[in-house]
Amino acid sequence: MKAGLLYGQRTVDLELPDSTILLEMKKLEAFADPTDAILHALANPIQSPPLKDLAAGKKNACIVISDVTRPVPNRVLLPPILQTLHQAGMNEDQITLLVATGMHRPNLGEELEGMIGRDLAEQYRVVNHYCRNPESYRKIDEIHGAPIEINTHYLDADLKILTGLIEPHFYAGYSGGRKAILPGISSFETMKFMHSYKMIDHPKVTNCVLEGNPFHEYGLRVTELAGADFIANVVINKERQVAGVFAGHFKQAHLEGCRMVYEHSTAPLDERVDMVITSGGGFPLDATFYQISKALICAKNILKKGGTIVVTCECREGLGSMEFCGIMRSGCSPQEFFEGYCEPENFVIDQWCAQNIYQALDYAGKIYVYSQGLAYEDLMKMGMIKIENVQETVNRLLPDHGRTAVIPDGPYVVGMVR
Predict the structure, then answer these.
(1) Do domains 2-24+266-417 and 34-250 have the same CATH topology?
(2) pLDDT (tens digit, 9 = 90+) per residue, 140-151?
(3) How many whole angstroms separate alpha carbon 360 and alpha carbon 314?
(4) Containing H/E element for 270?
(5) Which residues are catalytic?
């Protein structure tokens, strides 16, 4: 069996025994004309008037777009939306594109042009969300004493549109829909509540689960409070081509898209395996080790206790944020992390992905990492093993592991143990 593990903008190719369990996306045909498919969805939305009708007579519009860490085909998705708004009578200066950075860095210059195209970057006002700038957001309510603070550009818009990509998400069940607001354009204080140790530790805060998932349910509640007139979400296939468009009501259209993702991005297993060989999902997801928590959690969820994980991740930007680096370079054990960060007063930005990484470390026997962007010393402090050759490492490990699964696309495919 041959398997190409996603790694940056290339693959790491492996030869594996035919007995290896291959978990991959089911084939999903792309639209021959994605622009036509998007226009059709905007004109025939799910439980909503057409976008053109909603836009008629509106003074302005705010379109929320995902940041650079998500492979959203913005160059394909945005032009039909903008075209529809213009047909409804809106001018370019009445439209704001708001980048849902969450707690990530802003997307500027060439990076922004790469996301949406130079023409759109020059023609429209593009604003990045800054979660720690009080001038960027306004409080609209509280949940359990936590302030719900949302970007003012969005709150003040006459027409509010959410865009994004629907794929498995290890907290929200699925990305897209309400996630564009929370965490996309929420304040740091709001996200402290949503990314608390207790929230991330909840058993239903996991991939492909919506019912009973508090992360998803709070996301819906905040979206209702902030308002969302229309969403336009897409589903992409393995080649990252548009294969589904779900437009309309922020909850119902999103649910339809989630059903499609479940059908093509989950893979059943009869029992857990002894070793998982996986990837960080390739660029842009594997740009930092921070995001590799998603691949590790997906591997952990199908692994026997004490089993082995092998992961490929380019990490061209290194570990991640300063705060994340501080946690991961501290040299603390999983138990020390759990005992320290379970206390709300010790909350640190980006601790939630560190929490998932420590969960994987606590559960697995050994984790091997192939990455040109990570230092041997950093991985050693985390309790992981840096490797230089994936094929040689796998060949050495295979004789001691009975059942092995390989997930070339990493967190984009979710194994589900029956």
Answers:
(1) no
(2) 999 989 999 999
(3) 19
(4) none
(5) 104, 169
Return the residue matching tokens 């229309």.
230
Task: Name the pairing type of β-strands 404-407 and 21-22.
Answer: parallel
Q: Which CATH architecture has domain 2-24+266-417?
A: Alpha-Beta Complex (3.90)
What tokens were used for 277? 């060989």
Burial classification of residue 203, based on how many CB atoms lie within 10 Å of its CB (0-12 exposed, 13-18 middle, 19 or more buried): exposed
* Cα separation, 321 vs 167, whole angstroms: 24
- From the list 148, 136, 75, 59, the residue with the least C-alpha distance to 100 is 136
**pLDDT tens digits, residue range 16-55?**
999 999 999 999 999 999 999 999 999 999 999 999 999 9
Instruction: Compute the radius of gyration of the chain from its Cα atoms.
Output: 21
Cα separation, 93 vs 60, in Å, equals 8
Report the distance separating Cα 151 and Cα 139, nearest Å: 9
Could you tell me the residue ranges of all domains in the chain? 2-24+266-417, 34-250
Decide: 24 and 407 in contact? Cβ < 8 Å: yes
Q: What length does the chain have?
A: 418
34-250, what's its fold? Rossmann fold (3.40.50)
- From the list 306, 315, 309, the residue with the least C-alpha distance to 378 is 315
| Spatial distance between the Cα atoms of 355 and 365, rounded to a whole number of angstroms | 17
Question: Is the link from the previous residue into 71 a cis peptide, with omega within 30 of 0?
Answer: no
The model carries a pTM of 0.91
Backbone torsions φ then ψ of 108, nearest 5 degrees: -130, 165
C-beta of residue 327 within 8 angstroms of C-beta of residue 336? no
8 A C-beta contact, residue 138 and residue 190:
no
Question: Are 408 and 415 in contact, with CB atoms under 8 Å apart?
Answer: no
Q: Which two tokens stand for residue 16?
A: 């594996």
